[in-house]
Write a structure and sequence with these properties.
The chain is built from eleven helices and seven strands. The longest helix is centred in the middle third of the chain and has 23 residues. It is mostly helical and 268 residues long. The strands form three sheets. The chain has a three-stranded mixed β-sheet with strand order 5-6-7. A two-stranded antiparallel sheet has the order 1-2. It has a two-stranded antiparallel ribbon with strand order 3-4.
């Protein structure tokens, strides 16, 4: 006959009943926790790239001289990208992988030529050369950006996350992009770009004028979603005071594009 404890036992020792229930509930959490995968778990480790960015990127500029000393760590991260399980990743994981890949490959490209160039445009075919092994594919920077990030995901905020190693580009973020925080990181990158007068400049001397980065000229169509224009998207991301002014002046607003600075985003 199996051993049983009747209610009279628990009435004399109530703390035992509570402890037994605690063990039972903890066991349930353990079992179901093992059965249900963590939706926020990263399936690819970007931590080594994150450490490099934290060490050598500040205010959008890159300490390329310092990064040269740790180039082997960048190479090791690039090697992991080659076999990343891209096809089995979810949307956010794929986007984070491609954004980080684009930025890491661009850094590597600059390091190859550092000291001999003043701009990425001094390198022959920097965006068209198919040499970067990502997720079992050999891609060019152009393919990462246009075939995948723009073509597949169609999120215009990617334009403020990938960086072409130039002063005119959005600032390279001092951290890796992660699937678990991707939306927040993309929003932050866009808002940071829109808050900079180097990329978005409003003036009003009788004729309200909005001067913006050429990124909006080159990729303006990417922002035309849901009947909105890139100006509408900008208004949603600039600081609140400027947003209010732009909404008020919207009908009379003249838009033009700022010269693009292709000089290297090197920390001097």
């Amino acid at each position: 006959m199996p051993f049983q404890l009747d209610e009279s036992f628990f009435s004399h020792f109530p703390f035992v009943k509570f402890r037994l229930w605690g063990v039972f509930v903890a066991a349930l959490f353990l079992v179901f926790g093992l059965m249900v995968p963590d939706a926020r778990a990263e399936t690819f480790n970007h931590s080594s790239f994150d450490r490099l960015l934290q060490s050598y990127v500040k205010d959008g500029t890159v300490d390329y001289k310092g990064l040269q000393r740790d180039e082997s760590q960048l190479d090791a991260y690039l090697a992991t990208l080659a076999n990343a399980p891209f096809d089995s990743m979810n949307r956010a994981e794929q986007m984070a992988l491609l954004i980080n890949s684009y930025n890491a490959c661009t850094l590597k490209l600059i390091l190859r030529h550092y000291g001999k160039i003043a701009s990425i445009k001094d390198i022959k075919n920097p965006w068209k050369t198919k040499e970067w092994k990502i997720g079992g594919k050999t891609l060019s920077l152009d393919e990462m950006e246009n075939t995948y990030l723009r073509g597949k995901f169609k999120d215009p905020r990617i334009h403020f996350s990938i960086v072409c190693a130039s002063v005119g580009c959005p600032s390279l973020q001092p951290h890796a992009f992660l699937a678990t925080s991707l939306d927040e990181q993309l929003e932050s990158a866009f808002r940071g770009f829109a808050a900079s007068t180097e990329h978005v400049l409003f003036s009003d001397s009788g004729n309200p004028r909005l001067s913006v980065s050429k990124i909006f000229e080159w990729f303006g169509d990417d922002f035309q979603q849901g009947g909105k224009t890139f100006v509408d998207g900008l208004i949603e991301h600039v600081p609140a005071a400027l947003a209010a002014t732009l909404r008020k002046k919207r009908s009379a607003l003249t838009v033009d594009f700022l010269p693009f600075d292709w000089s290297l985003n090197d920390r001097k």
